[in-house]
């Protein structure tokens, strides 16, 4: 069936695939739209080789490695305060914060986990602090499982979840790259 990457998000076996295995049905709310994040410095978040690597905000343009599948864990409309995950372009590795985020110099952001657990879960918030929907072009912040905000460091572009505050370096612009339709997600319902 082409690319059969198993993703264990809720305990169900889920395939991100170009074809459905026999006995599979389409999942609701998963995997979600393809997005990119532009840092305050003007560079895009990138996972080298599309995953299995550290994450940097150092790309001048959006290419394959700067696109991530956004997984909204409540499967509803994307709202400020939602818990989300990012699946790297290889559709195998999730973006996560080491130790679930930690004081500096810890909390390095990478895309190495083949699962989406707590360290790979972020709370997305509108930069203005308001509640409500988040969409294309909105300025957002990402808070790690342990409450640290993700920052894009100036110069290196290194990304770390180690800030107790949200200022410019902890602000990103959400860029919706493609359709929000769900056309490639399948959950195994048979035994």
How is the main sheet built? 6 strands, antiparallel, barrel
Using only C-alpha atoms, the radius of gyration works out to 16 Å
- Mean pLDDT, as a whole number? 84
Shape, principal axes of CA atoms = globular
H/E order of the elements?
Answer: EEEEEEEEEEEEEEEE
Class computed from helices, strands and strand pairing = mainly beta
Low-confidence stretches: 1-29, 179-191
**Strand-residue fraction?**
35-45%
Structural features, described:
The protein is 0% helix and 39% strand. It has strands at 5-8, 13-16, 24-26, 34-39, 44-47, 53-59, 68-72, 83-87, 94-97, 109-113, 122-126, 139-143, 149-152, 159-163, 172-176, 185-188.
Write the layout of secondary structure elements.
Layout: E1 5-8, E2 13-16, E3 24-26, E4 34-39, E5 44-47, E6 53-59, E7 68-72, E8 83-87, E9 94-97, E10 109-113, E11 122-126, E12 139-143, E13 149-152, E14 159-163, E15 172-176, E16 185-188
Antiparallel strand pairs: 1-2, 2-16, 3-16, 4-7, 4-15, 5-6, 6-10, 7-8, 8-11, 9-10, 11-12, 12-15, 13-14
List its traits:
six-stranded antiparallel beta barrel; globular; mainly beta; 191 residues; four-stranded antiparallel beta sheet
């Amino acid at each position: 069936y082409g690319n059969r990457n198993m993703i264990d998000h809720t305990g169900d076996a889920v395939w991100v695939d170009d074809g459905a295995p026999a006995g599979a049905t389409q999942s609701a709310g998963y995997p979600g739209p393809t997005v990119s994040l532009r840092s305050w410095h003007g560079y895009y978040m990138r996972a080298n080789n599309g995953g299995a690597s550290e994450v940097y905000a150092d790309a001048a343009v959006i290419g394959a490695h700067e696109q991530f599948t956004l997984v909204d864990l409540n499967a509803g409309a994307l709202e400020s305060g939602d818990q989300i995950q990012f699946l790297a372009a290889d559709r195998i590795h999730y973006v996560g914060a080491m130790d679930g985020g930690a004081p500096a110099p810890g909390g390095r952001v990478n895309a190495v986990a083949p699962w989406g657990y707590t360290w790979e879960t972020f709370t997305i918030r509108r930069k203005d602090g308001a509640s409500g929907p988040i969409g294309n072009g909105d300025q957002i912040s990402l808070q790690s499982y342990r409450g640290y905000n993700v920052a894009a460091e100036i110069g290196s572009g290194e990304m770390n979840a180690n800030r107790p505050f949200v200022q410019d370096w902890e602000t990103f612009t959400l860029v919706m790259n493609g359709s929000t339709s769900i056309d490639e997600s399948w959950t195994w319902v048979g035994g």
